[in-house]
Amino acid sequence: MISKTVVRWLTLVALVGLSLGVMVPAASAAFVGTEITACGLPPITVAGNFFLKKNLTATGTDCIRVHHSNVAIDMNGHKITGDGTHSGITDNCNFVEAVAISHGKISDFDDGIDFCDGRVITIERVDSSDNKGTGIFIENSDDDLTDVRADRNGESGIDVDGSSVEFNNIEANDNKIDGIFDGSCCAGLDHVTANHNGGDGLDMEDDDQVVADVRTIGNGGHGMFFCCVDNVVAKATASNNGGDGMEFEDFDNRVSHSTANDNKSVGMDLHVGGDNEVTDVIANHNTTGVVLNCSFTGGNAVRVSAHGNTTNLSEITPAFCTNLDNSAP
Question: Which of 103, 204, 256, 327 is deepest in the core (most CB within 10 A)?
Answer without folding.
Answer: 204
